[in-house]
Structures are given as structure tokens and as C-alpha cells.
């Protein structure tokens, strides 16, 4: 069974509290989401393999370590996932980025897939799927299955806030996908929003209704 990791770092929790606050502006919300994503992926990549190489400093020759082995890829779910990916590319500029477009049917609350665009070598990379919220798990499961259909073998899922229902569904349908989040909230309401959550992340990020 996949593992579920909740990041309790003080900086992450502090910024998470700020984005939950309904008084936080769209500008601040976008900035904070990007900062949290960077802090989370910093922890997620702690175990990346490195190798030793020879370099020349301005003073003397020496040895240093660089990342080796696994290549990374990020797949944000449109549209809210876009707010998390910019900071990650700054941190890991060699990563490739794919995109998956999903929207929620407001009657059935099921995800509707409308777009996918991937770099040609995604199957060779370790992929991190990015979405601010893991609510019912529908979008997460759909996106992971799409990647598996493209022969991607190594997939992880990163979100800011998760509901237990979404975690359970993703682990049941894709037990090989580890889940990384900053918080697990109590429940979903009748409209399938996470409670207490932070509202609609896309609307708050881009100032839409």
C-alpha cells in the first residue's frame, strides 16, 4: 500500500494557515501557494540519488555532488495546479512539465477530462502530479490512470490539503502512488468541497467566481 506523508514543517503550516484565511488576497494566495509547493517538493526530493564529479573552483580543484539517475517531471492539473508548478521549475529547471485538464461536473461531481499534453519522454521520468486539493479523489485517480496509460511507471501525488475520502480512493485504485500533503481535513460537504479546506483554489488563485 502507498504511503501518505503529511508535512508538518512550521513554515509550511504557517503559510497554509494564511491561504486558508478568506481575507488573503488573490496575489498573496498565489505567492503563498507557490512557496508551499517549493517547500514540499524540497522535502519530497530529499532522497534523490547523487554522484560525485570533479570540478575546478576559482581557487583549486575539488569534488562535488550532483543529482544523478532519475529524471523528474511535473504534471499540474488545470487550472489550479498551475499555481504550484512555477516555483518547482525554478527549483528544478531540468524537470519537464506535462498538463492535464479536468473540470468537475457540478451535478455528478465527477471529473471530466478535456485536455492532456505531455513531453515525449515522460515514461522515462519520475512524475509528480500536482493539484492543490485532494477531495473525492476523482481527478487524482483519472490523472494517474492517464499517465499509466502513457506507460509512466513512477508516479507520486502532491497536494496542499486532502480529505480522507480522497486519500482512501486514490490508495485503493492506485496503491503504488505515494501521497504527499500539508494537511488532512475532516470531511467533505454536500458539494464535495473539503471542510474546513480553503474554498475553490482556482477561483481564489485567479480571482474568479
Average of per-residue pLDDT values: 91
Please report the first level of CATH classification, the CATH class: Alpha Beta
Q: Return residue spans where pLDDT drops below 50 for at least 5 consecutive residues.
A: none
Shape descriptor reads globular
Radius of gyration: 18 Å
Largest sheet: 8 strands, mixed
**Percent helix range:** 25-40%
Domain count: 1
The H-and-E topology, N to C, reads as: EHHEEEHEEEEEHEEHEEEEH
Task: Walk me through what this model shows.
With 209 residues, the chain is an alpha/beta fold. It has one domain: Rossmann fold (3-Layer(aba) Sandwich). It is 33% helix and 32% strand. It contains six helices and 15 strands. Strands 1, 4, 5, 6, 7, 8, 10 and 12 form an eight-stranded mixed beta sheet that branches. A three-stranded parallel beta sheet has the order 9-11-13. Strands 2-3 form a two-stranded antiparallel ribbon. Helix 1 packs antiparallel against helix 2. The longest helix has 19 residues.
Amino acid at each position: 500500500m502507498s504511503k501518505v506523508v503529511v508535512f508538518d514543517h512550521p513554515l509550511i503550516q504557517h503559510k497554509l494557515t494564511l491561504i486558508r484565511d478568506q481575507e488573503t488576497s488573490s496575489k498573496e494566495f498565489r505567492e503563498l501557494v507557490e512557496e508551499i509547493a517549493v517547500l514540499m517538493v524540497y522535502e519530497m526530493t530529499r532522497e534523490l540519488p547523487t554522484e560525485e564529479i570533479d570540478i575546478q573552483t576559482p581557487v583549486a580543484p575539488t569534488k562535488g555532488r550532483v543529482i544523478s539517475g532519475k529524471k523528474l517531471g511535473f504534471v499540474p492539473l488545470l487550472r489550479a495546479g498551475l499555481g504550484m508548478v512555477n516555483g518547482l521549475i525554478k527549483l528544478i529547471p531540468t524537470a519537464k512539465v506535462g498538463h492535464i485538464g479536468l473540470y468537475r461536473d457540478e451535478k455528478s461531481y465527477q471529473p471530466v477530462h478535456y485536455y492532456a499534453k505531455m513531453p515525449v519522454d515522460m515514461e522515462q521520468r519520475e512524475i509528480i502530479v500536482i493539484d492543490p486539493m485532494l477531495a473525492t479523489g476523482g481527478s487524482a485517480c483519472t490523472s494517474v490512470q492517464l499517465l499509466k496509460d502513457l506507460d509512466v511507471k513512477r508516479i507520486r501525488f502532491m497536494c496542499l490539503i486532502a480529505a480522507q475520502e480522497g486519500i482512501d480512493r486514490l490508495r485503493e485504485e492506485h496503491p503504488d502512488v505515494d501521497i504527499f500533503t500539508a494537511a488532512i481535513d475532516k470531511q467533505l460537504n454536500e458539494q464535495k468541497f473539503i471542510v474546513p479546506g480553503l474554498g475553490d483554489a482556482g477561483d481564489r488563485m485567479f480571482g474568479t467566481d
